[in-house]
């Protein structure tokens, strides 16, 4: 290799070594001079209020007891995520029945109370509730032994 060529190669290598840090420095300076960025995420999960009657089963007609009284069992399953709970109002929709009484199997968190000519079944917290209600009616005076359709209307409201 000629000495001039050798010098030119050495100069090129030296110049490359000198300029390489300068190029990367400039790049680093551009990066470090950029404004600092930060970000925050704010997630909010909204659960819609739900109140559903999953089951409301009862016989289509009242059954007659040995003493002539009428009765029937109602099964009510309610699912609610309402913070304050719900109430179910049971009312007679037929004036043909008298002496109505309702008994409920114990269900934690549920109360049953008479409310005038109706009954109120309430819970003060969310959850899934299965209530078995025993309805008893006095014997109808005008048509003893006649078949009677289910006379109870069920309404549900949020508290």
Notes on the structure:
With 159 residues, this protein is α+β, with helices and mostly antiparallel strands. The protein folds into two domains: 1-39; 51-158, Immunoglobulin-like, CATH 2.60.40. 19% of the residues lie in helices and 41% in strands. The chain has one helix at residues 3-33; strands at residues 51-57, 63-64, 70-80, 86-92, 98-104, 110-115, 118-123, 127-138, 152-158. The strands form two sheets. Strands 1, 2, 3, 5 and 8 form a five-stranded antiparallel beta sheet that branches. Strands 6-7-4-9 form a four-stranded antiparallel beta sheet, with no helix packed on it.
Main features:
1 helix, five-stranded antiparallel beta sheet, 159 residues, four-stranded antiparallel beta sheet, alpha+beta, rod-shaped, 2 domains, Immunoglobulin-like
C-alpha-based Rg, rounded: 40 Å
Distance between the termini: 98 Å
Order of helices and strands: HEEEEEEEEE
**Helix- and strand-based class?**
alpha+beta
Query: pLDDT below 50 for ≥5 consecutive residues: which ranges?
Result: none
* CATH architecture assignment of the largest domain: Sandwich
How many alpha or pi helices?
1
Strand tally: 9
Mean pLDDT: 81
Shape: rod-shaped
> What is the CATH top level name of the largest domain?
Mainly Beta
